[in-house]
Amino acid sequence: MPGTLLGLALLGLLVGGVLNALADDLPDHRAPRLPHYPDGTPRPVSAWLGITAFLTGQRAAPSGSNLSWRYPVTEIGTAAAFVIALLATADDAAMTSLQLVFWLIYMAIFVLVVVIDVEHKLILFAVMIPAGILALLDAALTSYGPDLRDALIGGAAGFILSFLFYLGGFLFIRVSGRLRGHSVDEIAFGYGDVMLFTLSGLILGPAPLFFAFYITVIAGALGAVLFLLGRGLRRRGYSLFTALPYGPYIVLGTVLMLLFSEEVLQIVGFS
Fold this sequence. Notes:
Structural class: mainly alpha
Order of helices and strands: HHHHHHHHHH
Shape: globular
Radius of gyration: 20 Å
Strand content: under 5%
Number of strands: 0
Number of domains: 2
Number of helices: 10
Mean pLDDT: 89
């Protein structure tokens, strides 16, 4: 088991490097390129991973363009997600190797979603559509999670619930903009979030989805309060219509119900 965990952690670091490369180019609608510095200069092979770039003093391009801390953090976060996924299933006799592979891919997708949403406030269709197809394949090929019927019901429920949120936020912004006498372009809960909730439903099925939705709403509210407190402590102003990335909270709710559904249900008294 220790050897497996180490191997999976190393795989997570490598996958995290790939996710960093995707996060650099996908938001700008560019084809993914080999790892490069923010100014576009190719990184040497020894600096393809953010961790090795930092450790070997190759964080900066010749022009002075620096890699941010996002690079090593993403790689370490992906490695941690892989290890946690394995530990969460280690004592489950029903878990198959194929199912674990699907879960590890989900973990990588969720890391990519969080990174892009935090940096750009975007959840990309280029990520969501292949992820949705993958979730349907998971439901069709494995028997651990929802079957194909429940996956489709969960996806439909996720779309409907989140689309109602989207419409409510859109209406609030429009009405508020009219009352204030100027238009507001940013929407706190966007259509990318709707697609992410749809993916959550496809992965979890209908029943776990509702708990994931509940976790997301609570975590999002707490995150907004902490954000406001942080801005206040730093004496920085806050606009009422500043959009905050909601994707990380959807990911949190989904991952908790995917990996720790029994524990969550025990906490809320449903098991």
